[in-house]
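so my prof wants the structure for this chain in the tokens format not the other one, which i didnt know existed until like an hour ago. anyway here's the sequence
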Amino acid sequence: MVTSEPGRPIERWLLRWSRAVRRRRHVVLLATAALTAGGLFYTARHLGVDTDTSSLVSDDLEFRRTYQEYVDAFPHLQDELTVLIVATSPGLADVSAGRLAAALAADTANFRSVHRLDGGPFFERYGLLFRDADTLDAMVARLERMSPILADLQRSPGLSGLVGALERAAREDATDAAGEEAGLDLRPLLGLLAGASYAALEGRFVPVPWSALADGRAPAPADHRQTLSVRPRLTFANAVPGRAAIDRVREVARELGLIERNGVQVLLTGTVAIESEELDSAVAGVRQAGLLALGSVALILFLALRSPKLILACLATLLAGLIATSAFAALAIGHLNLISVAFAVLYVGLGIDYAIHLTLRYRELRAAGWEADAAVDAAVQQIGPSLALSAVTTAACFYAFIPTDFTGVSELGVIGGTGMFVSLTATLTILPAMLATLPIATPRRSRGAGGLRRLGRWVGAHRRAIVPLAVLSAAAAGFLLPRARFDHYALNLRDPDSESVRAYRSLLADPQAKPLTVSALRTDAATARALADSVAALPEVAWARTLTDFVPGDQEQKLAVLARLDRVLTADDARSPGEGADAWAALARLRAALDEVRWRGTAAERELSRRLLHVLRAWERRAEGWGPESRARQAETLEAALVGALPDRLRALGEAARLAPLALDDLPPELRERWIGKGGEWRVEIAPAGALLTTDELTRFVQSVRGVAPHATGGPVNELGTGRVAVAAFRDALLWAAAVTGVLLLVFLRSLGGALLVVVPLGMAAAWTGALTVLLEIPFNFANVIALPLLLGVGVDNGIHMVHEARNGGAAGRDPLASSTGRAVLFATLTTIASFGNLAFAVHVGMSSMGRLLTVGMSCVLLA
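here's what i got, hopefully its the right format
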């Protein structure tokens, strides 16, 4: 059979195009191979990934301009890597943080600056002045009662001094006949030693928390943590910009022995670590989903086509179009962002649809007895018009995002929309050339057509029931739509099992940490103080600070209390003879001292010393099986655990006891530069009263603060603003896409009834999708916001194909569902569901939510 010249201009043009491509098929395929190889090379060289999340929204927005003003004033507070040092004791955490901070600060090639947020020389020296006066008085009173022990420890701030203190206490302790205790109370000290010894027996390193003796309480979880703010040198290029700095921090920590075996964990979080891990998970998720999508598409193509030649032709066309679209992205934009990086999976799911429609029609014509070349031309002329209209409508849905302020999806709109035209061109050019080059034998009629024919007859027989039920179900779904929500909280889109997110959530759960704060700028100290006082009165605010908060109040009263501490710490620097002795011998002296306490101490002390001796002797029996070197090393480790940070604590107490009053001008430069900007701006930092774990908490905090300080900025403001931009982009894009699609349907179908046949089922599918997002708890977010306009485009495509087939095939008596078009709609939608569904298994939560929403939506579109 041969095709005749059709009457419509587009059909005449498509027929001439198909014949030209078929006749020059070898030239077309060679040119395709050359262009594909060149596009692949160009993409590899020029297409990078922009990991700067601030580029996801327009810089012209008010909240972005305000944030940029803040960045200009405090550039040194941006792109910080937060390093958490979590140790088994507060002293070990403090020492480890100091060592790590010094090592990182020396590495100027990788780090611009290193700042200790809750420690360092300044707070070590003046920290006691920031305590409440009554708390400080109680602490000094406890140390006064321990003055004999402190004297021994000062003379020998090691295990020898500790043994001497226990021996002195045992000699001075006594119990009268009535059982009343006298002398020093050794119970707190013995309890701390027992904890460290028990841990050593279990193979753990838990130094004695000597600060607990002064504080009169066990250390809180926050006391075991120190925080460094590290500003790395970043390069936004193809590689992850913070990777070198992150790897370097971990390398330095290992070199310093700051590892879990030694009682220390070093965890990385903050903007740099979170965004770096997010990029890793996003790229890995897209790579995994892309490979799975190709595999899924190949499987569905096998079920649909049952021909290796047709499958090869479809996949070759798909890959050529994908590479061409990637090259366009490299040329037009130059980079992908954390949203547009998913374009490859979207292209696979959408781009294969056109090839399925064309090859199934070609297969149908061959099964009907058409010659191979004539079948190629007829398939192009019959399917081409609906493919062209589908490409236009789907591209319009992508392009609808371009005018929005949400740059992340705007760039995806440019790439995806152009990709639809690339896919159409590839389908009408490369695929016919391959079909002509690899003609298939006359196939048997598809078995699946019978099932679809039976479905079509059943639908026709029950149409009077199906239509009302569909309308009622859509109306019922409409009642759930107001409960659909948008999740503004970007942290919920990240891998919850990643180190950076786990560490960040631990900070959020700590009422003292407050990692999410906002800042407002003022011109001087007085206006900054006034704003801080106003904002601090809000119920949503925990505190508001300026630089003046680092000048303690009630200094005269506190310095008088510390003068008493100075009188307690009067020992000279002489060392006892046992200082520096062998650790094994020192432990033997400790056991002897504890044995003396066990016979001469109070009842509670005798019990504690008995338990401690039991542990030490068990440890000694275990040590007898070790070699001499190992035993000496383990003894030194136990000695280090028992002594802990005692020398540092005694030195810090001695310095704190001799403080002079602290004035604003005495604050160190590294602290001042975090609170006074380059142009002299004073920063007011505002912390939330809650943890900001939900969108509602985030919204209440930001709205409350900005009601008093309209130009407050920071992470919470940016997250809320970005979410609102995403919602507006989704709304505007959906309206534009719907309007443009409606106009295109009217123009090309030339019938209001035909347009309604396409749109009404799609509206029902949209209602079902919205209801299912509520029932399945799939909130909208800035990653999956592109889903509904895409569903509109794909749904319109299916409707266009079905209406086109009903018009053109109805006269010939073909049932649309039983035709190749019905099968193509089924299999094309299945490939789209399979491609998008693979995203649902991505590690990146945002990508996963996009995959789940698209899968649910495409299933509803297929059903409609």
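also thought this was worth mentioning. Residues 174-182, 573-580 have pLDDT under 50 and may be disordered.
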